[in-house]
Amino acid sequence: MGRTIAIFLTVLMITAALTAAGVTADEKIPDTITIEKAQAEKPAVVFPHGDHAKKFDCLKCHHKAASKDEVASCFKCHGVDPDAPDPSVASAKENPFHIRCRGCHKEQGLGPSKCSGCHRE
Ligand code: HEC
Ligand code: HEC
Ligand code: HEC
Ligand code: HEC
Questions:
Q1: What is the pTM of this model?
Q2: Is the CB of 35 under 6 A from ligand 3?
Q3: Is residue 74 classed exposed, middle or buried when 0-12, 13-18 and 19+ CB atoms within 10 A define those classes?
Q4: What's the rounded Cα separation, in Å, for the pair 53 and 46?
Q5: Per-residue pLDDT averaged across 4-28, rounded?
Q6: Is the pLDDT of residue 14 over 50?
Q7: Domain ranges of the chain
Q8: pLDDT at residue number 38
Q9: Is there a contact between 99 and 106 (Cβ–Cβ < 8 Å)?
Q10: What does the pLDDT look like over 38-96, one tens digit per residue?
Q11: Beta pairing class for 45-48 and 32-35
Q12: What's the N-to-C CA distance of the chain in angstroms?
């Protein structure tokens, strides 16, 4: 009986710790982000970041981050580091956003994959 209670209390404590961590992390998660570093040809992309961050693992997109609390802007590397795919090209296979964003939309059959679905005037 004592053991059951101990396990129950441990579970409660872990849940409380995770909830507390979730609250602090959530405060730092941007809701809507306008991605607009490169707009030589196409209008900026209004990205519902908060909705995506609720549905998907942070590190699926923030692929170089050690953890979800150490996320950096994609533009820290992309467009700077010659080894990182260039966000200013149109190619579906070379633009990091086309690969990641459009790639997932096509794979899931949800979310925009037409140019004007993301690049809205
Ligand atoms: C799922 C969303 C999405 C779709 C669909 C999409 N793009 Fe993009 N595209 C982006 C994002 C995000 C960027 C980076 C924007 C920035 O940094 O300004 C980008 C960048 C670009 C750029 C380089 C920046 C510029 O304006 O010169 C071009 C060109 C481009 N896209 C063309 C296209 C074309 C053509 C299509 C359709 C075949 C398309 N995109 C479909 C999200 C998308
Ligand atoms: C579907 C892809 C995707 C998911 C999932 C995602 N993010 Fe992002 N996040 C982005 C993009 C794209 C940007 C903005 C582009 C840039 O880096 O400037 C961004 C920007 C951010 C920024 C601002 C970075 C800065 O320095 O400008 C933070 C903080 C952040 N995300 C945290 C998170 C956290 C925490 C999660 C998970 C709970 C998460 N993101 C999930 C794609 C994503
Ligand atoms: C710390 C630097 C850095 C940051 C931050 C970063 N990337 Fe990358 N990314 C790279 C490098 C370098 C590569 C080349 C292949 C590799 O090393 O993984 C790459 C490759 C990619 C690729 C092609 C390979 C693959 O994984 O499919 C995509 C797509 C991509 N990055 C998207 C993003 C997006 C979207 C963000 C922001 C949410 C981001 N990256 C943030 C450095 C970075
Ligand atoms: C892992 C999968 C995944 C990735 C990566 C992803 N998306 Fe999405 N996105 C979705 C899904 C699924 C939906 C549809 C959500 C819905 O209909 O409720 C969506 C919807 C959207 C919408 C439409 C929202 C609306 O209210 O109409 C936009 C715009 C969008 N995504 C932009 C982006 C951009 C820009 C990126 C990259 C920075 C991105 N997405 C990366 C899965 C993804």
A1: 0.90
A2: no
A3: buried
A4: 15
A5: 49
A6: no
A7: 1-29, 31-118
A8: 86
A9: no
A10: 888 999 999 999 999 999 999 999 999 999 999 999 999 999 999 999 999 999 999 99
A11: antiparallel
A12: 65
106 lines ligand 2 (CB under 6 A): no
Check pocket membership of 101 for ligand 3, CB cut-off 6 A. no
**Ligand 4 atom with the shortest distance to the CA of 45:** 35
Residue nearest to atom 34 of ligand 1 (CA): 115
Q: What is the 3-state secondary structure (H, E, C) of 48-96?
A: EHHHHHHHCCHHHHCCCCCCCCCCCCHHHCCCCCCCCCCCCCCCCCCCH
* CATH entry, 31-118, from 3.20.20.150, 3.10.129.10, 3.90.10.10, 3.40.50.1820: 3.90.10.10
Pocket of ligand 3 contains residue 63 by CB under 6 Å: yes
Q: Looking at residue 40, what is its pLDDT? A: 86
Contacts of 61 (CB under 8 A, 6+ apart): 52, 100
Question: Could you give the CA distance from residue 19 to residue 16 in angstroms, rounded to a whole number?
Answer: 5
User: Which ligand is in closest contact with the Cα of 88?
Assistant: 1
Atom of ligand 1 nearest to the CA of 88: 23
